Amino acid sequence: MKEILVAMWSAILARGIVSVLFGLFAIFWPAQFLQFLALAFGAYALIDGLLTIWSALSPKAEGSNRVLLMINGVISAIVGLAALIIPGQIAVYLILLIGLWNIAMGVLQLVAAIVLRKELEGEIWLAIAAIISILFGAAIVANWVWGVIAVALLIGIAALVVGVALIAFAWRLRGIGNQLLARER
To answer: Model's pTM, two decimal places?
Structure first.
């Protein structure tokens, strides 16, 4: 499992970078962000889903890990496509949808983090990203009628923090990969 994740560190890094960019846009341009929220979220979820599906289809992914990645990727891609295809209808419920999506992705990431604990001692970055996603999603679901600017800022902050955690996780995996290469020499 460790070798599989090390090989996929660049896909995890890309997901983190996309999340950070998404978060910064929401924080610095909340009014404009909300005008395009359905499209921006749709693009983000679709890209995240496709990158996760790509990771699941990697020849190095195997067994239950492949299934978890595939489920995660398919859910993200479907939600993203729905937001891109019917943004008017989706925009009405988008805040609730974002909350539910974050809970689902967080739960799947937490399961993956628990599986990883067996192979990567002391590795908590994926678990941190998962817990933040779950808490953020629960807050949105519980209060989805919040003011739109506050929601945009919360979305931005959560995406930024999750993105930074995923980037840290990717760099950790890259470092492990470098250690494995050094041992082979």
So the answer is: 0.55
